């Protein structure tokens, strides 16, 4: 589920706001097209790249809020050079959308459908005086959506496109077609010790749906990211079987025996995307021997990643181990490891 949609729904429950979105980019820019921030009268969340660009955009958004009135939208261009004291060198166009308090129907539907893992396309007419957003597929668009938008949305839903925003020029004007990431990669994190907590913090708002498991009472910190679900259970191993196919497993509990049992169950089911175990080369050697004795074959043992983390990030502090691991997961090069984690 897109984090910005949840944040927007929460904000609109109590007050109006302005959504600032990176639209057209010419040359270099601090963030990619589709980056958003939500600005209220006294706060902001998200980012379009920081620096003076974000400062100026926030000031303009608050000016729109101060004006009052109804929902509306407008574009503004910014040159990322000396005038803004930025050195990116490009030019960006930002879309400012002012929303009144109260969730619009399209937002409620977006939160509901993405929460149910239903793929949708959010179609936005961006050259009108007021925000115009329609969720597709829609049984009856009443002719409000151009044919080109309907056709392209259908191809996106069939897998012809990736998540993110693309712009479409039609006879009816400019539209954004956005396919929010309805389903994040499932990641099962075993262990809520110092390293586990550091990992969980870094995974917040990243493209993973995290199930964070520990059997010890009162071990989890107060509050987690919207994509992190803490599970305190006396049956830790049961969570291996509950995980969906294609899950990422990260094992870093307080017990070597429990670590081994989790790895055994993961390797036995075989349908996982990645299995990482905190530890050293020596720990891996011992685990491989013991798991082989328990019947795990060579092909399965070869998939056990230990130590975890990207090559070149050295250190045993929890924050460094967490940084190295999360960088590895985001980089997608699971075979590159080298941080001794214990």
Question: What does the secondary structure layout of this molecule look like, with pairings?
Answer:
Blueprint: H1 3-12, E1 17-26, E2 36-39, E3 44-46, H2 51-67, E4 72-79, E5 91-99, H3 105-115, E6 121-125, E7 132-136, H4 147-160, E8 164-170, E9 173-179, E10 185-190, H5 194-203, E11 208-214, E12 228-232, H6 238-242, E13 248-251, H7 256-269, E14 274-277, H8 281-293, H9 298-301, E15 304-305, H10 318-331
Parallel strand pairs: 10-11, 10-13, 11-12, 13-14, 14-15
Antiparallel strand pairs: 1-2, 1-5, 2-3, 4-5, 6-7, 6-9, 8-9
Give a verbal description of the structure.
- This protein is of the alpha/beta class.
- It contains 10 helices and 15 strands.
- The protein has helices at residues 3-12, 51-67, 105-115, 147-160, 194-203, 238-242, 256-269, 281-293, 298-301, 318-331, and strands at residues 17-26, 36-39, 44-46, 72-79, 91-99, 121-125, 132-136, 164-170, 173-179, 185-190, 208-214, 228-232, 248-251, 274-277, 304-305.
- The chain has a 6-stranded parallel beta sheet with strand order 12-11-10-13-14-15, with helices on both faces.
- α1 (3-12) crosses α3 (105-115) and α5 (194-203) crosses α10.
- Mean pLDDT is 85; it is low at 333-340.
């Amino acid at each position: 589920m897109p984090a910005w949609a949840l944040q927007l729904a929460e904000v609109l429950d109590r007050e109006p706001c302005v959504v600032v979105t990176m639209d057209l980019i010419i040359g270099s820019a601090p963030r990619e097209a589709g980056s958003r921030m939500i600005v209220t009268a006294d706060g902001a969340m998200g980012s379009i790249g920081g620096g003076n660009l974000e400062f100026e955009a926030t000031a303009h958004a608050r000016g729109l809020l101060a004006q009052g009135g109804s929902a509306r939208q407008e574009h503004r261009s910014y040159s990322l050079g000396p005038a803004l004291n930025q050195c990116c060198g490009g030019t960006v166009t930002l879309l400012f959308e002012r929303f009144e308090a109260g969730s619009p129907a399209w937002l409620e539907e977006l939160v509901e459908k993405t929460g149910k893992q239903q793929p949708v396309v959010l179609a936005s007419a961006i050259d009108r005086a007021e925000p115009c957003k329609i969720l597709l597929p829609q049984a009856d668009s009443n002719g409000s959506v151009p044919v080109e938008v309907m056709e392209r949305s259908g191809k996106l839903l069939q897998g012809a496109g990736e998540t993110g925003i693309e712009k479409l020029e039609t006879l009816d004007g400019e539209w954004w077609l956005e396919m929010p990431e309805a389903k994040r990669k499932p990641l099962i994190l075993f262990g809520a010790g110092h390293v586990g907590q550091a990992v969980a913090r870094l995974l917040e708002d990243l493209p993973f749906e995290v199930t964070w498991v520990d059997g010890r009472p009162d071990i989890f910190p107060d509050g987690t990211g919207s994509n992190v679900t803490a599970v305190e259970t006396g049956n830790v191993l049961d969570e291996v079987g509950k995980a969906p196919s294609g899950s990422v497993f990260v094992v870093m509990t307080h017990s070597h025996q429990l670590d081994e049992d989790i790895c055994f169950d993961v390797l036995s089911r075989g349908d996982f995307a990645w299995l990482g175990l905190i530890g050293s080369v020596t720990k891996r050697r011992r685990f491989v021997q013991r798991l082989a004795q328990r019947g795990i074959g060579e092909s399965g043992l070869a998939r056990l990643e230990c130590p975890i983390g990207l090559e070149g990030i050295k250190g045993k502090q929890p924050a460094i181990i967490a940084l190295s691991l999360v960088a590895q997961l985001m980089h997608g090069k699971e075979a590159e490891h080298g941080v001794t984690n214990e």
